[in-house]
Design a protein that fits this description.
The complex is a heterodimer of chains A (311) and B (300).
Chain A (H helix, E strand, L loop, with lengths): L1 H19 L2 H24 L7 H16 L5 H23 L4 H21 L16 E2 L3 E2 L3 H23 L2 H11 L1 H6 L4 H27 L4 H4 L1 H14 L5 H16 L6 H15 L4 H9 L11
Antiparallel strand pairs in A: 1-2
Helix pairs in contact in A: 2-6, 2-9, 2-11, 2-12, 3-4, 3-5, 3-9, 4-5, 4-9, 6-9, 7-9, 11-12, 11-14, 12-14
Chain B lengths: L4 H32 L6 H23 L8 H22 L9 H22 L17 E3 L4 E3 H23 L1 H11 L1 H6 L4 H23 L9 H16 L4 H21 L7 H12 L9
Antiparallel strand pairs in B: 1-2
Classes of the chains: A mainly alpha (311), B mainly alpha (300).
Chain lengths: 311, 300
């Protein structure tokens, strides 16, 4: 009954939102919710902090954009190509970065992502400083014209919804439980017969693929891919969204991404002071509210199940 | 392709210049990590502030004070900037960073990342991201020096010599001096060292300040060469991370040698195949990870 109520509320929210605020803004939030949820799959459930997720998000954005614009393929194939690229890239990054742990993992992913950034700067097909612009949205299944506002909106809702549902299923699957177990006590998980390295690698590839999906959808919405998408600051943004919302619970990234995107939009007049404000919020989050917005609220109401066990 | 020996030599010497900056920054990062178990994501921001102290002191402070003739020259900046920025670092360590000791190092990384955002954001409001040139390079160091096999800018030669002296002195102090023995004991067994009467928290604070001071000093040395910009440290820091992974994060020796070697290799790449120059360090890092995950001088 509770679940049904939640579904109805979310459903009404999704329908009403574009009437209340600028639809592109809502779709941007949806893309980043998916991105943050994909990131949370890795940080929250595998306990691995990656500082290189911009490579998957932005890499997929470029590939999807290129396949649709230059090859004239339909949007669905473009998205598939982008996700596939991110999955393969995730495998390469994962194999390399998982050779080290903890703090090294963060530094290595950051450094590897920089290779993708410089490639995007230098390779001819990415358009360098200009990026890929005016990428057509095309026809979904050859039937639905995505240039119509309602069509693109509900396509984004469907894809992001499917992505979130996928992540939800992964987290609650035996694989997800084993992953959480290996985060909590790696030694015990190994002694129980789990191949922790393999679990972590799979989690990394999955996280990279969903990040790629987010980047691909972003290209459909905004019709461009640029260096901002692959810049390390994008990796930093998704870290901030996830930590701010609350690590290791499914609602955290949704709240975190919405708050950060809304702040970036509405506090635009502050110029670079917005960076300072976000830094201050992030810092106080680390020092005082280590469970993030959702985690702290859940703790306040004594819902232990929602509160992530970390720190 | 026209590959002359002169070109290779020239680019390699420029690479050496880059390499000493890498070495200085990785050295500070390694010292801080060794003692505090924290990867200082704000290291690049402190380097940036170091350069800004020199820039502000030379071109801005006088007009602010109403005496446009007043300038803090390069030599004074070389002393003042590390002291000021090091003090800022100590303040941060004492008041905030301290609260995270004993937690997962990831929190230290995230907190210093927030600090970097704050510091860079503040400077971005007042200074152009594309950079402001620093004109305070001392006259005595202008011009070029004949090294026998090539002529080399005197100022760059000066930065190489100063940086090498500082790196080697620090290395020697940590490995050989009594102060270094105490420091290493504090890294290995903090509780036991404290029981023997060493004020370990004070040592931690001072070492942190020293590491930050090194970053600021590097910033001052870099100011006359690169233009001073709010993000000059952020991009550099990622390269430094790769250097540190190659050298082995806990290793002082690895930081210095790694920095020099990778700087040289980058210079060499710039001469042979320029498009690879910005990525070569990261590719070397990937190869080192495959062969020796702990880094060239690191311990698992």
């Amino acid at each position: 009954m509770k679940k049904l109520a939640a579904f109805v509320i979310v459903g009404i929210g999704v329908v009403v939102a574009p009437q209340l605020v600028y639809p592109a803004f809502v779709m941007q939030i949806f893309c980043f919710i998916l991105f943050a949820a994909a990131f949370n799959l890795l940080l929250g459930y595998a306990g691995l902090l990656s500082f290189g997720h911009a490579a998957f998000f932005g890499g997929a954005a470029y590939i999807t954009g290129y396949v649709i614009k230059m090859w004239g393929y339909p949007p669905l194939l473009g998205i598939l190509a982008g996700v596939l690229f991110s999955a393969v890239l995730g495998l390469v990054f994962g194999v390399l970065a998982l050779r080290r742990r903890g703090i090294y993992f963060a530094m290595i992913t950051l450094a590897l992502a920089q290779v993708i950034y410089f490639s995007a700067v230098q390779l001819p097909f990415t358009g360098g400083e200009n990026g890929l612009q005016s990428i057509p949205r095309g026809m979904l299944f050859g039937l639905i014209d995505l240039s119509r506002p309602a069509c693109i909106y509900y396509t984004v809702v469907a894809v992001v919804g499917a992505g979130l549902f996928g992540i939800y299923r992964i987290v609650n699957s035996p694989f997800g439980v084993a992953l959480t177990a290996s985060r909590e006590d790696e030694g015990r998980a190994i002694s129980l017969g789990y191949d922790v390295k393999r679990l972590q690698l799979i989690a990394f590839v999955l996280s990279a693929s969903f990040s790629g999906l987010a980047g691909a959808v972003k290209v459909l919405v905004f019709q461009f891919a640029s260096l901002t998408d692959v810049h390390w600051m994008m990796s930093g943004d998704v870290v901030i969204m996830t930590v701010l919302g609350g690590i290791g619970n499914l609602l955290g990234p949704i709240v975190g991404a919405s708050v950060v995107i809304a702040m970036q939009q509405h506090l635009d007049f502050m110029g670079s002071w917005i960076e300072v404000v976000i830094g201050l919020i992030m810092g106080s989050c680390i020092l005082i509210f280590r469970h993030g917005i959702v985690g702290e609220i859940a703790r306040l109401f004594g819902r232990r199940g929602l509160a992530a066990r970390n720190g | 392709m026209h590959l002359s020996l002169d070109l290779i030599l020239a680019q390699t010497m420029l690479g050496l210049n880059q390499g000493v900056f890498y070495a200085m920054l990785s050295l500070g990062l390694a010292i801080i990590f060794g003692l505090l178990n924290i990867v200082n994501f704000a290291h690049g921001a402190f380097y940036m502030i170091g350069a800004f102290v020199a820039l502000l002191g030379y071109g801005y402070l006088g007009p602010w004070l109403g005496d446009s003739g007043f300038r803090i020259n390069f030599w004074v900046s070389l002393i003042i900037s590390p002291v000021l920025v090091g003090a800022l670092g100590i303040l941060f360590e004492r008041s905030i960073l301290r609260r995270l000791y004993g937690l997962d190092p990831i929190y230290g990384l995230l907190l210093t990342f927030s600090l970097a955002l704050i510091l860079q954001g503040i400077f971005q409001n007042y200074f152009n991201v594309s950079g402001t040139p620093y004109h305070g390079q001392p006259k005595i160091l202008s011009g070029a020096v004949d090294l026998g096999f090539m002529t080399y800018p005197a100022y760059r030669l000066f930065t190489i010599i100063v940086s090498l002296i500082i790196c080697l002195t620090t290395w020697f102090a940590i490995e050989k001096s009594k102060w270094g023995i105490v420091l290493r004991a504090s890294i290995e067994r903090p509780a036991l060292t404290q029981a023997l009467g060493v004020n370990v928290p004070l040592l931690v604070t001072l070492t942190f300040g020293f590491g930050i001071g090194l970053a600021a000093l590097t910033g001052v040395l870099a100011a006359p060469i690169y233009s001073v910009s709010p993000l000059m440290g952020a991009d550099l820091l990622i390269t430094i991370f790769a250097v540190v992974v190659v050298g082995g994060l806990g290793s002082i020796k690895g930081a210095i040698i790694g920095g020099l070697v990778l700087g040289l290799l980058q210079g060499l790449t710039k001469a042979i195949y320029p498009p690879m120059a910005s990525t070569v360090i990261f590719i070397i890092m990937a190869i080192v990870l495959l062969i020796k995950p702990a880094g060239l001088f690191g311990r698992e």
